[in-house]
Protein 1
Amino acid sequence: MRKVARTSLALVASVFAFAAVAQQRPDFGKVEIKTTRLADDFYVLEGQGGAISVLTGPEGVLLVDSQFAPLTDKVVEAIKRVSDKPIRFLVDTHVHGDHVGGNENFAKLGALVFARDQLRARLQNPNPAPDGTPGKPAAAQALPVVTYDNQVTIHLNGEHVRLIPIRNAHTDGDTLVYFPEHDILAVGDYFRSTGYPVVDLDNGGTLAGIIDGLGATIGRAGPNTKVVPGHGAIVDRNALIAQRDLIVAVRDKVAGLIDQGKTLEETIAAKPTAEFDSKAPNAEQTSERFVKWLYAEVKAAKTKTAAR
Ligand SMILES: [Zn+2]
């Protein structure tokens, strides 16, 4: 029984990996970088892929995430419009190419790259593609220079930027970047404000980790905190709470359907996300992927318990 559950989890995981690869081939020439000002010295850049947070000031620039490599010139142009200081630090929130793709370019520009130990290891030893093709290790200069498995603080421009590990959430190398003086949380992809939550099971993500990670993030957020997700609009604490509630509610529905003996297809057909589908952008389009993930994890957990 155990083996069956694990195989189906792996199958679902590779479906996700396929989807991720398909999403990662946009026409970069057409991408424009949109800059949103959150404070005189804090900006969010959106182009293609994950949002980039930018802390500026007299001591230099700190970035959270770097988008795809072909976009670096455009990103640098956008940064130059808000700061003439060097880009000194880059923090990777997680291993996906739309967040770390620019690492090598920014390292060559002089940025010191920070990330979790697990993220660095995955850049060095990426998973094979779904068709079995071996993963291509990242270039040496793309690798984070400073790695950590506990909280790290970078003191820059009067801010005390806290890099907080979020364990086994969207991946096993997630970091929450907290800017206490600005009351800003840059969270990467374990929370998004577009579509249903996404996990990367192949890279160590888990449902329990995402729920715990949202809890830890809610704990850091106050009534005026700005939350910068990896994807989607900048939101507040209420959106984090709503998402955690949503995940728990849909998970429980899926668990109930599994208890009734429903197959994956029957569970999807029962539309366990229905009450939430109209409440978020892209929700309906991402519902099936979300339900597949919940089904795989809940089923695997139940099988494991039964086998004990
Ligand atoms: Zn991601």
Protein 2
Amino acid sequence: MPAPRTVLLTGAAGGLGTLMRGLLPEYGYTLRLLDVRPVEGEPDAITADLADLDALREAVRGVDAIIHLAGISLEAPFEKILKANIEGTYHLYEAAREKGVRRIVFASSNHAVGCTPRPRDGDPLIPVDTPRRPDTFYGLSKSFGEDLAQLYWDKHGIETVSVRIGSCFPEPTSVRMLSLWLSPADGARLFHAALTAPDVGHTVVYGSSANTRLWWDLSTARALGYEPRDDSEPYAAQLIAEQGELDPDDPAHACLGGHFVTDPPIWPH
Ligand SMILES: NC(=O)c1ccc[n+]([C@@H]2O[C@H](COP(=O)([O-])OP(=O)(O)OC[C@H]3O[C@@H](n4cnc5c(N)ncnc54)[C@H](O)[C@@H]3O)[C@@H](O)[C@H]2O)c1
């Protein structure tokens, strides 16, 4: 596949979309932006809901690839997750199939495997083929998205890299995030690798920087050509001084998904 140049970025108004809008053009991409909300400072962005299959057909026309970030990014009632994340992702894949888009990068999440116990000292890193154990309806929708991606590869030859993103924010803000942090610059490196690696079929990768306190195995991401350059460790001393080490007896600290397992934050809209 020739390197993609024009990429549809869904969820462009969101936190990660805003970071990637700033960083991905440096890799030579022309971005077409889509979100259900207006994208600040981007009058050409497409304002459309993932429920609108006709709008998605139009949005994917002529793009080389899609980075799919749009959707509910926290826990919500099942009916809302169903519409935005499950049906919405299906609509996007259908539009891609109809219009001949061959590569999608799907924003999956650590919450697809959130009920997996986190490694303790000396335990092996969590492999990418660990059984999925969603911690919320949100995580369940990401698990569905990965299966949908597999189906569209097996049946229709659409390639996907499903990136189980840890926490992509400018800085880690919790002790848990020291293990899961994906710096924005490494996020752009990883998306670029996912867009350009040859013959990915459907590949699942974990999305983190090269953190000293990493919980999961980055080898499938590295196999795409991803070379993370950042590490959360410089933030560790201050965060641990403020918040303490993760308490092994606290159920909110026992699993990969952290407090999503016990007390997930709720989507506000
Ligand atoms: N930021 C992270 O660290 C992180 C971690 C794991 C997974 N993810 C995933 O990455 C993606 C982006 O995350 P984020 O932190 O930027 O979330 P966000 O909530 O800031 O952004 C999501 C965007 O999707 C849009 N959206 C929601 N429903 C839509 C619909 N029906 N149609 C069109 N657009 C819709 C929202 O308006 C919003 O701008 C999400 O899919 C999220 O689940 C992010």
